[in-house]
Amino acid sequence: MYNENQLYTAGRFAQKAGVSLRTVRYYDEKGLLKPTSYNEAGYRLYDGEKFERLQRILTLKYLGFSLDEIKDLVDQEMKVDRAIHIQKEAVKQKISQMESILKALNSAEDMFNGELVETDEIQWEKFTDVIKAINLEEQILNQFINSSRLECRIDFHERFGHDKRGFHKWIFDRIDFGDKNIKILDIGCGDGSIWLKNKDRIPKGCTIVLSDMSQGMIEKAKENLKGVDGEFQFRIANVNNLPFKDEEFDIVMVNYVLQFVEDRTKAFKEIKRALKKEGTFYTSTFSRKHMKELRETLREVNENVKLTLGDTTTRFVIENAEEQIKEVFCKVEMDKYEGSLRVDDTQSILNYMFSTSANINEVLNKKELKTLRNKFQSVIEEEGYFHITKETGLFKCRNQQEHEK
Questions:
Q1: Number of domains in the chain
Q2: Where do the HTH merR-type domain residues begin and end (predicted)?
Q3: Which of 108, 145, 194, 402 lies 20 to 30 A from 229 at CA?
């Protein structure tokens, strides 16, 4: 058990951690494992908390993450027990992948049965099975990163949101669940947060189908909703090609997804097809004002960096969503959610930005990153917090007009 307040020289730290001094120096140079402080002689000193950070770095490296990806992940603020849990899930996925590779290799080996097989008798697809199993690694890593980034964004809004009730409960208040025994489809369910945050309010007798394009998100939703009272089903699905029957659902929900869909008209038609004639479609999106302070500050430092939320998704926002929805749905109503974030921690802002940006790592150099950090920090020191505007809307869409019923 290491005393987190005790300081260790780099050599002593490396010895206790069971790694080489060169490894500690290397991760310091890469900005992954900075010293806690320096002594009078200029030697680097590390405290007990750095052992946990080093462990995270080494685990993620073993799992196949790049140094940039590792830095992104370890810089996110999270409780130690949560960080350990996330790593455990990643290791489980790695084990599952290795088992798939072993199974494919065994299958290929069994084909020979210890005997020489003629070339024209070899089932070459056995080898493609091995290749596919190996190539799953990139998919697993991407799913892990996406899940971790989503958690970072949700945590950011919950910690610093001025409205402590939160968006998930606000949106749940506005869904008309109506009769019992209804069937609900949640498209782009992510980690299932909306159901987890409202677990004590889920209507009895309803069936909830959670769908997402990401297998990783589906697995995360399953994990989060384990033990939650409700009949949940999980499906991998693309909104442009839903694997469901016509008129199967009473309610279809799509939150913060359609701005990323290229062919939204096709998506709306698929949703309408899967929705009962008297059913209701709910979808939420952002306004152009949403998180604008982050974009403005970022543009002051470098105009080439794009935040995924707000820069590349203005094709489906509050200001133009209703017009698009009405191409397929008859009656559309919008309820606006206005709030704000008051963030008093610079690192949390940077973590959030890294979780949303598609190119911030590639575009910002160290000098620009320091400038960005200083801009946020100066506002926090002067005002007590950095204010961020939140503005989203929930659209309630009827499948048909009253006179058509």
A1: 3
A2: 7-76
A3: 145
